[in-house]
């Protein structure tokens, strides 16, 4: 049997149902590691609200919320947060790859 094909993509509102199903199914298994959370996070409506907040952060440029897919099915989540705008990197992007390479060579 071949290994599942995995990828990561930006979270979408339609991901609320599968994420809620995973959280409801796995709540007991992860209780030891996860902080106490409202029961609403195990519902589709609760996940829809959460996804709306995450996508608002994405539009603001402060986070990148994603889902992990295996053969097209949502099997996990990943969120990069605390993204801070860096003026020198924005400027480098406008100047092209050479400027980025030169900036990174200094580190």
What does this structure look like?
- With 107 residues, this protein is of the alpha+beta class.
- It has helices at 16-30, 44-60, 87-95, 97-105; strands at residues 6-10, 63-70, 73-81.
- A three-stranded antiparallel sheet has the order 1-2-3.
- Helix 1 crosses helix 2.
- 10% of the residues are buried.
Entry summary:
The chain is α+β, with helices and mostly antiparallel strands.
Key terms:
107 residues; alpha+beta; single chain; 3-stranded antiparallel sheet
User: How can the largest sheet be summarized?
Assistant: 3 strands, antiparallel
Strand content: 15-25%
Helix content: 40-55%
Number of helices, where a helix is a run of at least 4 consecutive DSSP H or I residues: 4
SS class: alpha+beta
Strand adjacency order, main sheet: 1-2-3
Give the overall average pLDDT: 83
Any low-confidence stretches, pLDDT <50, length ≥5?
Answer: 92-107
Distance between the termini: 44 Å
Which radius of gyration do the C-alpha atoms yield? 18 Å
Number of strands: 3
What general form does the structure show? globular
Order of SSEs: EHHEEHH
SSE map:
Layout: E1 6-10, H1 16-30, H2 44-60, E2 63-70, E3 73-81, H3 87-95, H4 97-105
Antiparallel strand pairs: 1-2, 2-3
């Amino acid at each position: 049997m071949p290994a599942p094909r995995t990828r990561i993509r930006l979270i979408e509102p339609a991901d609320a149902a599968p994420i809620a199903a995973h959280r409801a199914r796995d709540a007991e298994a992860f209780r030891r590691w996860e902080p106490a959370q409202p029961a609403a996070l195990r519902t589709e409506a609760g996940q829809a609200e959460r996804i709306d907040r995450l996508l608002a952060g994405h539009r603001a440029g402060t986070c990148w919320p994603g889902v992990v897919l295996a053969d097209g099915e949502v099997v996990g989540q990943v969120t990069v947060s605390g993204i801070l705008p860096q003026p020198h990197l924005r400027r480098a992007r406008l100047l092209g790859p050479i400027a980025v390479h030169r900036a990174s060579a200094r580190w």
